[in-house]
Write a structure and sequence with these properties.
- The chain is mostly helical.
- The protein folds into two domains: 47 residues, no CATH class; 152 residues, no CATH class.
- The protein is 53% helix and 7% strand.
- It is built from nine helices and five strands.
- The strands form two sheets. It has a three-stranded mixed β-sheet with strand order 3-5-4.
- Strand 4 and strand 5 form a beta hairpin.
- Helix 2 packs antiparallel against helix 8, helix 3 crosses helix 9 and helix 4 packs across helix 7.
- The radius of gyration is 19 Å and the shape is elongated.
Length: 217
């Protein structure tokens, strides 16, 4: 397995996650002294639970919930499927894989011509849609990219009263997203896959997760 040096070295005394039987918390030094991968994955999840999950789960604002869930998907794409180790960047296709895992029935589908025509008919700029794109790519471009980087909704409408995670409206050229359902789907995936990562030594995610941990520990 490829060895990666940490992109930023954190001293042994710095907190890795919150209290773990000691008042000072669990430190990077404590983490580096762990002997097994299972222990490392358990404490890595403890870190994510404390610094990310517990901070997002009670958010009530739809926009904030959607954006923070996208960030979680980006992280899981790096953990489970890999990242660009030369630049410490996420890989777009790996983030998209996470989106597709959350709703494979809808997001793995190719874009229908009616959607494409109506989407492009609303644009005053060159269309970003590519012939090989699925609805997951529209989701990534219109929500993860556009909402976070430019505060513009490209074909993504947030509606916290929608009964499902997403609804694809081909006749309008847009995807409607319920941020709460988006979070719920993410949270189930997160818990399920980390349980697999920790308890199933044949999990295909273990190698990628170990490389991810090496990149910052």
């Amino acid at each position: 397995m490829t060895q990666i040096k940490p992109f930023f070295y954190n001293p042994d005394g710095r907190i890795f996650h919150g209290v773990w039987g000691v008042d000072r918390g669990f430190t990077y030094g404590d983490f580096r002294n762990l002997k097994t991968d299972d222990e490392k994955f358990i404490h890595f999840k403890e870190r994510l639970d404390g610094l990310y999950i517990n901070g997002v789960k009670d958010i009530t604002h739809p926009f904030s919930k959607a954006v923070m869930t996208c960030i979680g998907c980006d992280v899981l794409g790096q953990v489970f499927f890999g990242f660009d180790s030369s630049k410490n960047h996420s890989i777009t296709e790996n983030t998209i894989k996470i989106f597709e895992e959350l709703d494979p029935t809808n997001l793995r589908r190719g874009i229908e011509l009616e959607f494409r025509n109506n989407y492009e008919g609303r644009l005053n700029i060159r269309s970003p849609l590519k012939p090989t794109w699925h609805y997951s790519h529209v989701f990534n471009h219109g929500l993860r990219n556009s909402y976070i980087h430019s505060f513009r909704p490209f074909g993504i409408i947030l509606n916290d009263t929608l009964n499902s995670f997403i609804e694809i409206k081909n006749e309008e050229g847009c995807i409607v997203v319920n941020p709460d359902k988006f979070w719920e789907a993410f949270y189930v995936f997160y818990q399920t896959k980390f349980d697999e990562l920790i308890n199933d030594h044949s999990s295909p995610y273990r190698i990628s997760a170990k490389i991810y941990l090496e990149s910052f520990v």
